[in-house]
Amino acid sequence: MNAGDSVKVTASDFGFYKDIEAWAKATGNSVTDNQIQGDKVVATVQKGANQPVTTQVATGGSTITTTSEGTTIVVFDGNFDKAIASLIIAQGAAAMGQPVTMFFTFWGLSVIKKPGVKVHKRGLAKAFDSVLPSSAGKLPLSKMNFLGAGRSMIKNLMHSNNVDQLEVMLQKAQDAGVKMVACTMSMGLMGFEETEFIDGVEFGGVATYLGDARQRSTNLFI
């Protein structure tokens, strides 16, 4: 699109009514029309001439334009609902053109485990493996889990409301250029191997996280 060109966007989430205004302001664009029409939000966005300072980042066969601001998220918790929250924030920041780093540590490592991977383990590593979720789809809810029934209920609600499942969110976040880092210290303590994690995950310690965090304007701990 060229400066001055417009595009009409329709969304079923009423939060979009305010979100599109915030996104446009952050990315140097403008909303020329924004209305709630029945059960939809319909907005018209005009591409701005004065865009924020950006950097082109190649990822997954496409190019992502990023601003000088950014977000880092420490994912410490291994619960289904909190993983969803962290990924929604990450995708939102990426959509605003921000570089995003997600640093998965301790219980949060379960969020990025690859389904179906079996690794022979012994001792405490085997004990951890037997009690921790095997993949993102097996994470418990932080409240009202009911032995997994609560998670199934939330998954059904997500499906009926056209919300991506957690596994799809992970892939879309990576496609949007979100950098995912598994904490190597936590991996060592809990007996995780690199082969147990989804493709595209990087591996690093606290210095890797802090190196990104000091360059970002927003840092979150979930």
Describe the structure.
- 33% of the residues lie in helices and 25% in strands.
- The chain is an alpha/beta fold and 222 residues long.
- The mean pLDDT is 89.
- Helix 2 packs parallel to helix 5.
- The strands form three sheets. A five-stranded parallel sheet has the order 9-8-7-6-10, with helices on both faces.
- InterPro entries: DsrE2-like (IPR032836), DsrEFH-like (IPR027396), TusA-like_sf (IPR036868).
- Pfam families: DrsE_2.
Mean pLDDT: 89
Total beta strand runs: 10
Gyration radius, to the nearest Å?
A: 19 Å
Give me the secondary-structure category: alpha/beta
CATH homologous superfamily assignment of the largest domain: DsrEFH-like
Distance between the termini: 36 Å
Q: How does the major sheet shape up?
A: 5 strands, parallel
What proportion of the residues is helical, as a percent range?
25-40%
Number of helices in the DSSP assignment = 7
InterPro entries: DsrE2-like (IPR032836), DsrEFH-like (IPR027396), TusA-like_sf (IPR036868)
Keywords for this entry:
Hypothetical Protein Ychn, Chain: A, 33% helix, alpha/beta, three-stranded antiparallel β-sheet, 222 residues, single chain, five-stranded parallel β-sheet
Mind sketching the topology for me?
Blueprint: E1 6-11, H1 16-27, E2 30-37, E3 40-46, E4 54-59, E5 62-67, E6 71-75, H2 80-95, E7 100-104, H3 123-131, H4 149-160, H5 166-175, E8 179-183, H6 184-190, E9 202-204, H7 206-213, E10 218-221
Parallel strand pairs: 6-7, 6-10, 7-8, 8-9
Antiparallel strand pairs: 1-3, 2-3, 4-5
Helix pairs in contact: 2-5
